[in-house]
Amino acid sequence: MTTIKPGLELTARAAIAARTEALFRSSGALRDGHFLLKSGRHSEAYLEKFAVLSDPAATSELCGFWAGQYRGADDRPTVDLVAGPTTGGVILSFETGRQLGTRAIFAEEVHGSGHPRREFRRGFKIVPGERVLLVDDILTTGGSLLAMIPAVEAMGGEIVECAVLVDRSGGTSSLASPVTGRRYGLNALWILDLPTFEPGSATCPACAAGSPIHAPGSTGVGPV
């Protein structure tokens, strides 16, 4: 298992990205077609993260990359708490917290509130001033993390960074709190440029070609 520290040279980060890509490809997680993403946008490629997260060894290795990054020179964690959004973020936060030796919690989606948001329920607490690492699986628009940031801020947590397995925006996404406007750093193990499109034949090539669309994962199952 490779571990990395802050300030690691580009060659080592490239090795981490290559290994992350290899784990996704070997699991069959990268798929081609016409897909409806959770964000509502369309894509000609889809990353099924649970093809990777269903493998405990692969998940442990990926979380180990983060655990290596968020340890100081004395091998102590540089964060106090790891938090992730349901559903994939539950697995990632708990495994990363286990390896770091910190607490781990998750935030659930709140429906019917007008704007996407998440809450920490089930007795989960963040002590004011605690250093929090936010983790998630795939970043497309950053919606899940953006919906969770205000919940951390409201409890007084200090967000150290946001970490994702894959940034499929090609490194163009930025994360700013929708409440405070504060910007947070994004750390991706693998940056992948997979374009997404607004639905409709004028904007989406697959829609223009009349390809049936699939709504995978939590969005739905099968063609729609």
Instruction: Please bin the fraction of helical residues.
Output: 25-40%
Count the DSSP helices.
6
Extended strand count: 11
The major sheet is characterized as: 6 strands, mixed
User: What's the overall geometry?
Assistant: globular
Question: How does CATH name the architecture?
Answer: 3-Layer(aba) Sandwich
Question: Helices and strands, in N-to-C order?
Answer: HEEHHEHEEEHEEEEEH
CATH topology (level 3) name = Rossmann fold
Task: Note the gap between the termini.
Answer: 41 Å
Beta strand % = 25-35%
What report would you give on this structure?
The chain has 224 residues and is α/β, with parallel strands linked by helices. 29% of the residues lie in helices and 27% in strands. It has one domain (29-215): 3-Layer(aba) Sandwich (Rossmann fold). The protein contains six helices and eleven strands. Strands 5-4-3-6-7-10 form a six-stranded mixed beta sheet, sandwiched between helices. Helix 3 crosses helix 4. The relative contact order is 0.17. Residues 1-5 and 219-224 have low confidence and may be disordered.
Question: Which features would summarize this protein structure in a list?
Answer:
disordered N terminus; globular; alpha/beta; 224 residues; 6 helices; three-stranded antiparallel β-sheet
Topology:
Elements: H1 10-26, E1 30-36, E2 42-47, H2 50-53, H3 56-69, E3 81-85, H4 88-100, E4 103-110, E5 117-119, E6 131-139, H5 143-154, E7 158-167, E8 175-176, E9 183-184, E10 186-191, E11 196-197, H6 205-208
Parallel strand pairs: 3-4, 3-6, 6-7, 7-10
Antiparallel strand pairs: 1-2, 2-11, 4-5, 8-9
Helix pairs in contact: 3-4
